[in-house]
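Why does residue order matter? Because the sequence determines the fold. Keep that principle in mind as you read this record.
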Amino acid sequence: MQALQPHLSPILIRKAVEDALLEDLGRAGDITTNATIPSDAKAKCVLATREDGILSGIELSRAAFAAIDFNLVFNAEKQDCASLSKGDVIATIEGNARAILASERVALNFMMRMSGIATYTAEFSSRISHTSAEVCCTRKTIPGHRAFDKYAVKCGGGSNHRFGLDDAILIKDNHIAVAGGVGLAIERAKAYAGHLVQVEVEVDTLEQFREALKATPDVVLLDNMTNAQLKEAVELNKQDNSGSVRLEASGNVNIDTIQAIAETGVDYISTSKITMAAPTLDVGLDISIR
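Structure:
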């Protein structure tokens, strides 16, 4: 089944854009533009990519221009998730020159970062497309921008891990240490969680993994295991639970290691690289006075 287009809340977009514009414009606004450009000057500009990639963030760019001047005409030539080739026109913007110049940087910042994440995620996804594994982002995102980072991951063909501490249970090593054991931690989590809340547990040895399987969590995260250990865990899961517990690999995942990890048979591979190490996509705005 083809995945639906990812979605961002307009409220999140509006608030993020307004906060970014306030940060950039400060107390006095764009004093350079206001000092050099007549208030009634008109301009038309082209938003274009300077390298190949995957687009993400078109609606944040649109919102940045609209927040300064609702009368600016923003025509999107490409939509999020689209493949871009160097030189492709993403959008055209036309209207008051001061408004365009004042919102340009914020519009570009969102699009360049988000498109960079989408593009890097697509590279990771392409390495494992011959397997059934999915590459997932983590909670390692820029503070305040998690929804946008995770949206960009989906634009690039990746999957989202939990958004925060409140939407899924992930029992990690420190939880296990305090709780007194893997099995006990899982039992407590399942008793606490509602039927719609997933329970995942992190293990770093096959001994812990066997204990976890007995308690049947929804997902087991296999942390920093070798590929040989991952393969063994996949086989153990098939033997003990007919493969019903989903397996996630994490730790030391990068663009060069992800293929071999996926080929072990795990269901998910989580990595912070796609959000924290993605280079921005080079997008520029070229303007001409009418």
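The longest helix spans residues 97-127.
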